[in-house]
Structure formats: C-alpha cells, structure tokens
Design brief:
heterodimer; A: 296 residues; mainly alpha; two-stranded antiparallel ribbon; 11 helices; 2% strand; globular; B: 238 residues; alpha/beta; Rossmann fold; 2 domains; 6-stranded mixed beta sheet; 4-stranded antiparallel beta sheet; 10 helices; 10 strands; 37% helix
Chain lengths: 296, 238
C-alpha cells in the first residue's frame, strides 16, 4: 500500500508540472490559435533563468520563481510579437496558415535550444536549493520539493482563474481570446492583450521549469520530453480547455508513475501515449472538450 | 462631426466601396440604407478602423481617423455597436457591459455608466447575472447597444439593430434609441428596415454598388419610389 501511495504522490506532483505546461499550451491555443511547439524550450529557459537568478542574487525560492516567470513572460511576448504575430494575421488553428505557425514553432524551438546552449552550455546543472528534510506522514517520507510543486501549481491555477474572472485586464484577455474584432470595437488594446496572453502562457511553463529543477537536473534538452507529455496532457483534457489541461496533466503523471513502478521503467514514455490513445478512442475531443474547435 | 470623403475600400483584390462621401452633423441621426451586399458593413468597418480605406479620408471632429487602430477611435468617442449576435455568449450580461467600459478608468464613472444603461434597458438589469447565451434576440440587441453606451461615446454607429427581430421588439428598441439620441447622441444608423430607419432619422443615404445612390431628408425619401426600387434586389422594404 505504501508503495502505491508513493507512486501516486510522485505521479500527481509530476502531473502538476505537466499540467502547468499543458495549461500554457492550451491557453495560448484557445486565445491565439497558435499550436505552440516551442513551449518546451520556454520551460527550459524558465528553469535556467531560475538557476541563474539564484546564482546571481541568492534570493529565496518563491522570489526566484517570480523572477523567472516575469522574465520568461517578457521573452515569450517578444517572440510572439516578432514571429507569430505576422503569421496569426493570416489566420491560425486548422488552416493553411496554421501549418506555417507549427513549422515556425519548430524553428523557434531549435533557435532557442541553440541560444540556450551558447549561454548555459550543454552541461546539466542541479538547481541548488535546499528545502530541508522530507516531511514524515506516518510511514510516508515526502520530499518537500513535491509539496512545493503541489502548492505552487494550485496557487497559480487559482491566480489565473481569479485574473480571468475578476479583473478588468483578465476580462479583456478573455474577450480578445473569443473574438478580436469585437474586442477592438469595445476600445480594447488588442495587440497588447495578445502579448499578455502569450506571456502568461509562457510564465506557466517557466514556473513548471523552476518547480521541476530541484527534482531533476536543468539542461538544454529538457524541453523535448516535457513538450510531448504536455501535448498529450492537453489533448487528453480537451485541447484549448484550461481545467482539462490540468486534469490531463495529472492523469498522464499518475499513469506514467504507476506504469513505471509496476510494469517497467524502461518504457516510461509509452504510458502517456497509451493513455492518450485510449482517451481519444472513447472521447475524440478529449475528456472536457465539448466539440472540436474549428476556426477558419 | 463625421465626414467621409470619397472612400474606396475592399477585401483583398475585391473592391466593395467605390468612392462614398457622406457627412453626419453633431447631434443628428443619419440613416445609411441599402440591401444585402451593397457595402454597408464594409463602410462601418472602414469608419471604425477594422478596415483601412484604399483611398479617401474619414474625419471625426475635424481630425483624420482613417488608419488609426480601432481602439484608438473608440477612445476618441466614436463607437460601433455590433449586431446582437456579437455579444460574448460565455460571459454574463454584466461582464459584457463591463467590457464596454474598458476605457473608463474611474470607478465612479463606470457606476454611472451602468446606471444609465440599466435605466434605458431595465431588462438588462433583471438579467445582469445571466450568461448572454441565454438571452433572447431582442435582449441581445439591447445588450450590444448598452455595451456601446458604456464608454460614454459622443457618436455611435449602429449596425442593423432591427436584424432578425419581431416588429414589436424593433419598435421598442427604436424608441429607446430615439430617447438616447435626445440626450445628445449623434447617430449613424445602418438599416435594412427602411421605414423604421426613415421615421427615426433626419437625413438618409441610400447605398448601392458601393456608391451613394440617393440622398436626402428622411421626410422626402419616405415617399420616394426610387428608394423602394433600389431595394428590389434587397430585403424588407416595408
């Protein structure tokens, strides 16, 4: 029983990280019609920025998290403004121009990897924070890094929900996500809101990167694995659906952890896709996806 | 207040507007009439900034506004009211209205705007917590007009407020529009419902094939057979 609980706890914490990245991907897709294939690199850069900020400033972990999120959001917004904005003007999503966006995403992903390689070299570095001793609950030993993941992810999800639901800016972001022309006619600064939207999506990935840092190493190639898992999570939950992305992330994390624990750790990456295929066979638009969104 | 000078515009290579000129004086109600596909919506988009004109100029309160971003034009006090179907369905009535007041910075001013809109449309006050998706066609139209009013504009462009509504509701909505205009609003009213539009407006332009086909005081046009004839290709002339 203890082994099972351990696996579930590890799965849930990793799943929250997948969920955060998937949340960013879904958020960007639902608002801007960009299927963002460079999101894994945004996550990687977020993690490195966290490490560098720690080396330079020695600040506390929550502040590092915040610094990394803000910087990554700015970098993301700049990327969107410079590259994606030209393409989304021609239409995105499931259209011919949408194909261009996907290819641009791969290109940006390659450029970011190489920029990161030049700045931070190919060495895997640890995220040198010490959270202290694991917490003991009965016979369970729970490393504090996992608690941080759960607490921060829940806080970020609540913050995003509150922002979108109760603030003037959040309402405007939702309006822009739904229809840009109408938002324009209401006097909303649409280009700015598009930057805000993309920046928030990237900040979520950066948070995920800083959260995973203390458990795994931080390295240039870390974005590829997470991108695949996060896409699986986003699609399992219903692409473009925000609660669905988190739910999908948790499912992918738990299935992966249980599979690795009981079946075999060698095929760890297969379980996420087995889940993806199983869900899509039963519900083609994902667990919480109502209909497949088609935009011209 | 608003002057259009030889506007030409279109989409891609297709030219829709072939040189339209018109003027709306301060405090006036002017109607823009024409059947389907005559370029009325294109003209509205050109004025509100969603579409850049190929040639010609749009002047609002003495300053050129063509080529400005739509939100900058709203900031100057010129608001296009969308058709009822363009409300945000997944948001509540109140959220839709709050979006209309996006540019209004002060809390007190926003509250005043809410009060004014609820005064004009008590139905919206009753349904303020409901999602827009649950409203009737008439209520949606009220919502969009109210949403336009929230930024306290000097002039409104109304895009077919009678579209797809029952005659009694159309009458109600036109009465309210008349009341809003008596408070000093300038209005450019785009309509297919010629009779209703001419009863409300003082002056009217009839658009056909992207040019002004006929223009004149509403009282003269209302009995003009030429207006009716220019509609034979179009919609409800009655």
């Amino acid at each position: 029983m203890g082994y099972f609980t351990d696996l579930v706890i590890v799965g849930l914490s990793l799943g929250m990280v997948y969920g955060l990245v998937a949340l960013g991907i879904s958020f960007i897709y639902s608002g801007l019609d960009i299927v963002h294939f460079a999101h894994g690199e945004i996550y990687m850069i977020g993690a490195f920025l966290g490490v560098t900020a720690l080396r330079l400033t020695g600040l506390d972990y929550p502040l590092l998290l915040l610094i990394s999120m803000v910087l990554t959001a700015l970098i993301g917004a700049a990327i969107e403004r410079l590259f994606y904005r030209r393409l989304t003007r021609q239409g995105g999503g499931i259209s011919f121009a949408g194909m261009g966006i996907i290819i641009a995403g791969f290109g940006i992903s390659m450029v970011l990897q190489n920029v990161a390689f030049l700045v931070w070299t190919a060495r895997a570095v640890p995220f040198p924070v010490n959270f202290g001793l694991p917490i003991e609950i009965g016979e369970l030993m729970l490393p504090r890094a996992y608690l941080w993941i759960v607490a921060v992810t829940l806080a970020l999800m609540a913050a995003l929900h509150g922002f979108l639901k109760y603030t003037r800016l959040g309402l405007a972001v939702r309006a822009v996500a739904f229809n840009k022309d109408i938002a324009y006619l209401l006097g909303i600064n649409v280009p700015l809101m598009m930057s805000v939207l993309f920046g928030i999506g990237c900040a979520m990935a950066a948070a995920a990167g800083v959260l995973i840092g203390p458990i795994n190493y931080v390295e240039v190639s870390m974005g590829i694995g997470i991108l695949i898992k996060a896409f699986a999570a986003a699609v399992v939950g219903g692409f473009g659906n925000l609660p669905g992305a988190v739910l999908g992330g948790l499912l992918v994390g738990v299935v992966e952890s249980l599979g690795a624990g009981y079946l075999s750790g060698n095929y760890k990456d297969i379980y996420a896709f087995a889940l993806l295929i199983a869900v899509l066979m039963v519900r083609p638009s994902g667990l919480l996806g109502v209909t497949v969104k088609v935009k011209a | 207040m608003l002057e259009l000078e030889a506007i030409e515009a279109g989409y891609g290579n297709v030219q829709i507007l072939n040189g339209i000129s018109l003027a709306v004086g301060r405090g006036r109600i002017v109607a823009l009439l024409g059947g389907n596909g005559t370029g009325k919506s294109t003209l509205l988009k050109t004025i509100s900034g969603l579409l850049k004109p190929w040639h010609g100029s749009v002047t609002f309160e003495g300053e050129r506004i063509d080529g400005l971003r739509p939100d900058r034009i709203v900031r100057r006090g010129l608001v296009q009211v969308t058709q009822g179907k363009e409300a945000y369905p997944a948001m509540s009535v109140e959220e839709n209205l709050r979006l209309g007041a996006f540019l209004v910075g002060q809390r007190a001013a926003r509250r005043r705007a809410f009060e004014r809109v609820y005064e004009h449309f008590p139905r919206l006050a009753e349904r303020r917590r409901q999602l827009a998706a649950t409203l009737s066609g008439g209520e949606l139209q009220m919502l969009c007009i109210g949403r336009g009013l929230m930024s306290e504009p000097k002039m409104m462009l109304l895009d077919e407020p009678s579209a797809a509504l029952a005659p009694q509701i159309v009458l109600d909505i036109f009465r309210t529009i008349g009341r809003i205009c008596r408070d000093g609003m300038t209005l450019l009213l785009v309509e297919q419902n010629v009779r209703m539009a001419l009863l409300l407006a003082e002056y009217a332009y009839v658009v056909r094939d992207g040019v002004v086909h006929i223009e004149g005081p509403a009282s003269a046009l209302i009995d003009d057979d030429a207006v009716r004839l220019s509609y034979l290709a179009g919609a409800s002339a009655a």
